[in-house]
Write a structure and sequence with these properties.
Number of helices: 5
Radius of gyration: 24 Å
Structural class: alpha+beta
Order of helices and strands: HHEEHEEEEEHEH
Strand order of the largest sheet: 1-7-3
Distance between the termini: 22 Å
Number of strands: 8
CATH topology of the domain at 31-171: Aldehyde Oxidoreductase, domain 3
Helix content: 10-25%
Largest sheet: 3 strands, antiparallel
């Protein structure tokens, strides 16, 4: 969007263009796709933001005929984001949580079935035991228990932006207002996430 068009949109009621197909049932979602031999997966997620996994019992789900995967199945696999930024600390991101969970909602087990309903039924048969660990919610407080052993202070990246003397700016200001602001964690909320198929079906958007 050009600066002229953006300026023209300010203060105006901009009409939405995508509503018609969504409210008339012509939108296409990932859950609408049916492919040969397709399977569904349901994830059992951690209710804790920080906890040690003391036991995973998937025997009931397996006895019911479900295919179940736990963190032990992928203990040898981990994603590791890299960065060229100085002071960046690399940490492992497991496929499924193994030994501990590091955030609320982290996947602990996955149940694969022929349809979504059977997958969710199998997920409810998986029993996970946790030992809650202390959570540190302030970046400037030393953690009682770090999330990652590679970052004992829970700091993954430090950067300094220098744009002049703060002391001089305060000294030359006509008015100085002091406030302490705390920003809650937030994220975008799309109608659904991106998806792709190995069978050649193009990614589907809502």
């Amino acid at each position: 969007m050009t600066a002229e068009r953006a300026a023209g949109a300010l203060g105006r009621n901009v009409r939405r263009k995508e509503d018609q197909r969504l409210i008339t049932g012509h939108g296409r979602y990932v859950s609408d796709i049916e492919l040969p031999r397709m399977r569904h997966v349901a994830f059992l997620r951690s209710p804790y933001g920080h906890a040690r996994i003391t036991g995973v019992d998937a025997s009931a789900a397996r006895e019911a005929g479900h295919r179940v995967f736990t963190g032990a199945d992928f203990a040898h696999v981990a994603l590791r984001a890299q960065s060229a930024l100085p002071s960046y600390v690399e940490t492992d991101q497991p496929v499924l949580a193994h030994e501990k969970v590091c955030y609320s909602g982290e996947p602990v087990a996955a149940v694969v079935a022929a349809d979504r309903y059977r997958a969710e039924d199998g997920m409810e048969l998986v029993d996970v035991e946790y030992e809650a660990l202390p959570a540190t919610v302030c970046a400037w407080v030393d953690p009682a228990e770090p999330v990652h052993p590679e970052a004992p202070d829970n700091v993954l990246l430090q950067r300094t932006f220098d744009a002049g003397s703060v002391t001089d700016a305060f000294a030359a200001a006509d008015l100085v207002v002091e406030r302490e602001l705390i920003t809650n964690r937030h994220a975008g909320n799309p109608m659904e996430c991106r998806a792709a198929s190995r069978c050649g079906t193009p990614p589907m958007g809502s």
